[in-house]
Design a protein that fits this description.
With 323 residues, this protein is of the alpha+beta class. The chain contains 13 helices and 11 strands. The strands form 3 sheets. Strands 7-6-5-4-8 form a 5-stranded antiparallel β-sheet. A 3-stranded antiparallel β-sheet has the order 1-3-2. Strands 10-9-11 form a 3-stranded antiparallel β-sheet.
Length: 323
């Protein structure tokens, strides 16, 4: 355990340049006293680690010092192969770099580790797009990625859903997110951080202007907050529905996750039916979602959704009159 922790301290200082004892303790989930002892052990072993004093101080390695020791365990090496994403890497223009990194990783492993870690490549595959849809064509992805990596400001012609449909924007691109086969760039425009679909970028110019990222910016946190805000905007109301016992029993086949979640949390009546409340986006969207279940689901409220389902059913019936 201690040798692994010493290596972790060494690699953390090598990659992050300077860390306080408290930051190291929090990262490795140990006490300050343990960090002090470990740093002394590294120094005694000949590692050129020293402490900068003062409020902005911390532990550092002598400039230019690097270790070639990686200390990868068999499980860690296997995990690196598991997280490989050839599709997204190719979309970002990193196919050659990914292959080169894989070869270097294999070369660094012992023969038995190389064989076991390499097995995962042929046993697991990550396919991002959802069923019944292909990955989006995003011709501007590579230049966006280049701007993200080098903190370059970009000017784009962007197609949005509301009028005016095509707008010009100057963006500071902070990061890229891949979700269900679609790429999104999280960027700042006029001081506000927003999310833009890369496939909707019609034209793009990477400028020579560099931008500065906000202190403490974390892409994963910003994306989670975006999803939460999106759900809050998306759901404008609720509907109360009665679900038949037959549909309750085959709820695993239902392709409406919110309805399934509500059914599983409800207490069935004596006849096996359940009455649940489900979030809805709009009257039209809710009617289109619920009508697919026919007489196995009845909307009890609101009346607007009931009226829209009745209109849809009448329209379909008129399209197929009895002979």
């Amino acid at each position: 355990m201690r040798s692994s922790r010493l290596l972790s301290i060494l690699l953390l200082l090598q990659t992050r340049r300077q860390l306080t004892a408290r930051e190291l303790a929090d990262e490795l989930e140990v006490s300050l006293r343990t960090i002090y002892r470990d740093v002394e052990a590294l120094a005694a072993a000949g590692v050129p680690v020293y402490a900068d004093q003062g409020r902005a101080g911390g532990y550092r390695l002598v400039d230019g010092y690097r270790t070639r020791l990686t200390g990868l365990t068999e499980q860690e090496a296997a995990a690196l192969f598991l997280v490989g994403m050839p599709g997204p890497a190719a979309a970002l223009g990193l196919t050659a770099e990914t292959s080169a990194a894989e070869l270097k990783l294999l070369a660094a492993l012992a023969p038995d580790q190389r064989d076991r870690a390499g097995r995962l490549k042929n046993r697991f595959y990550l396919d991002m797009p959802a069923w019944y849809s292909d990955a989006e064509d995003s011709p501007q992805l590579a230049p966006v990625a280049e701007a993200v990596l080098h903190d370059r400001r970009i000017k784009v012609l962007y197609r949005r859903w509301e009028a005016p449909r095509e707008v010009e924007r100057t963006l500071d691109p902070y990061g890229l997110v891949l979700k269900n086969g679609s790429w999104y760039v999280v960027a700042s425009a006029s001081g506000a951080v927003r999310t833009y679909r890369v496939s909707n970028i019609l034209d793009l110019t990477v400028t020579d202007e560099e931008f500065t990222r906000p202190p403490g910016f974390d892409l994963a946190t910003v994306w989670r907050e975006h999803l939460e805000e999106f759900d809050q905007r998306r759901f404008t109301g609720t509907a109360v529905v009665r679900v038949s016992a037959r549909l309750v029993n085959r709820r695993k086949d239902v392709s409406f996750p919110l309805l399934v979640k509500a059914i599983e949390a409800a207490e069935p009546a004596e006849d096996g039916t359940v009455t649940v409340t489900v979030p809805i986006e709009s009257v039209g969207n809710a009617a289109a979602q619920f009508i697919r279940y026919g007489d196995e689901l009845e909307v009890l409220a609101p009346d607007e959704v009931r009226a829209e389902i009745r209109r849809l059913a009448t329209t379909v019936a008129e399209l197929y009159p009895a002979p």
